[in-house]
From TrEMBL:
Keywords: Adaptive immunity, Cell membrane, Disulfide bond, Glycoprotein, Immunity, Immunoglobulin domain, Lipoprotein, Membrane, Palmitate, Signal, Transmembrane, Transmembrane helix. Residues 143-153 have a biased composition (Low complexity). This is T-cell surface glycoprotein CD8 alpha chain. It comes from Caloenas nicobarica (Nicobar pigeon). Residues 143-169 are annotated as: Disordered. It is found in: Cell membrane. GO terms for biological process: cell surface receptor signaling pathway; cytotoxic T cell differentiation; T cell mediated immunity. GO terms for cellular component: external side of plasma membrane. It comes from the Eukaryota. It is a single-pass type I membrane protein. Residues 42-130 form the Ig-like domain.
Amino acid sequence: MDGSPALLLLLALGLGEYGHGVQGYKMTVKFRDSSITHPRVGQRLELECQAANEDSGIFWVRMDRGRTLHFIVFISSMARTTFEGKERTSRRFEATKDSRFYRLVVKSFTPQDEGNYFCLMNSNQVLYFSPGQPAFLPVIVTTTPAPTTQGGTTEEDPSPKTPDPDTSKKKEPDFFCDIFIWVPLAGACVLLLLALAVTVVLCQRTRSRRCRCKR
């Protein structure tokens, strides 16, 4: 049986969420080592699927964090294995069958192997699948230490602060702009004052002449 195309077709037709089973074809998936809760990087991880009494082989599938399905291997009832790409062997996985137990081995666990593992069985064109077995690396929580203080005062940065060169560059153009604006204004004011003074003097002379003519 060609595992990968058949699996994808059946999943597209009948699989909405992992973890459901059907009465009469109950399957279970678990770690062979019951003491394992989270795999470690580089660890050899063994999973075991117990199928129904009458079966026609099972598929091992992994669902990653993004809920994308990844076909791993099909193990026939005669213990023949077909990995991705129709290969008989895999660099990353091993697969065996012992009676009704189908086993999958992740040779060296990596973050790429994280996900929910479950097995599926196709019987009479009906797809049956087991609950998923989560296999995720332990979450490492890192905490940032708070800054220490002595005597209720915070430590100051001993290094002197140099002025920002960008700030000094901005001040220079402002200074020149002030010169170009205020110098012409001052000159205009001086000219206006001179013109006003000349006008006043001329007006006084004109009045004195008029007064002499009337006499």
